[in-house]
Amino acid sequence: MPHVLVLQHPDIASCDLSDFPKLVPYSERVVRIDVPAGFVLPEAAKAILARQQIDYALLPDQSFADLGLIVSDMDSTLITIECVDEIAAGVGLKAEVAEITERSMRGELDFEQSLRQRVALLKGLPEEVLQNVYDNVLSLSPGAEYLLAECKRHDVKFMLVSGGFTFFTERLQQQLGLDYAFANVLEIEGGVLTGRLTGRIIDAQAKADLLLQHRHMLGLQPQQVLAMGDGANDIPMLRAAGIGVAYRAKPKTQAAADVCIQFGGLEAVRGCFR
């Protein structure tokens, strides 16, 4: 299959791309350059692109409609926040919990252990705090609505798989019309968080397992599945997909991905394809 170098910027025509020959913008924000299989972008070229905040990807030349499934992390990927950190603000522990979250996402802590540690700190919070986070703090990442609209237009299924909580994934699934959603269940008794989780833990391996399960269920080839995430617990999922996208991600996650989006929003996922 032919390969392409895809360059993306909100105003690509205004960028200095004199080091890249014979460029014709594919759209206002995307340039596609045919390259031979095995092409490696020189470090000097990467530096030129980074200075101008241009995202790039080296990929097989595929149509977006060739995909069958996108699997996405939730926190700091489909949405801009880490929900557990914002819930912790309700007990004045946002800074403490956010530090644990950051270390976990960098791959410095065991995910399940750190998740249970953070959830234990939420004990005693009323369920209304979760609703307040959803209504007043949570926001979609830039380009999310466009990407989801393109998925519907091209019949690409969308699965949200999160190490966060079903309270949020279920509401996002209903609000956005997502095909599938999986996350961890916060135990709530009498309208109050107990500080415990119930059921299966959605950790790094569970994310990868769910991707493979749905790929097989939908009868898709590996290259028809794209996964995107930002943290270390997304790495097995990114590797299990035909195309792994690190979205504004931690260094370990970037190193494991096929594509890194550092400057653009989620519209850049769509822009990687014809």
Q: Give the percentage of residues in beta strands.
A: 15-25%
SSE succession = EEHEEHHHHHHEHEEHEHEHEH
Low-confidence stretches: none
The radius of gyration is 19 Å
Strand order of the largest sheet: 7-6-5-4-8-9-10
Question: Which class best fits the helix and strand makeup?
Answer: alpha/beta
The total strand number stands at 10
How much helical structure, as a percent, in the residues?
25-40%
Morphology: globular
Distance between the termini: 14 Å
Mean pLDDT: 95
Q: Main beta sheet, described?
A: 7 strands, mixed
Catalytic activity: O-phospho-L-serine + H2O = L-serine + phosphate; O-phospho-D-serine + H2O = D-serine + phosphate
Pathway: Amino-acid biosynthesis; L-serine biosynthesis; L-serine from 3-phospho-D-glycerate: step 3/3
GO cellular component, one term: cytoplasm
InterPro entries: HAD-like_SerB, HAD-like_sf, HAD_sf, PSP
Structure description:
It is an enzyme of class 3 (hydrolase). One of its GO terms (biological process) is L-serine biosynthetic process. This is Phosphoserine phosphatase. The chain has 274 residues and is an alpha/beta fold. The chain has helices at residues 43-51, 74-78, 83-88, 94-105, 111-120, 128-136, 144-153, 166-176, 204-218, 235-240, 251-256, 267-271, and strands at 3-8, 30-35, 55-60, 69-72, 157-165, 180-189, 192-198, 225-229, 243-247, 259-261. It has a 7-stranded mixed β-sheet with strand order 7-6-5-4-8-9-10, sandwiched between helices. Strands 2-1-3 form a 3-stranded antiparallel β-sheet, covered by helices on one side. Strand 8, helix 10 and strand 9 form a beta-alpha-beta unit. It starts with a strand and ends with a helix.
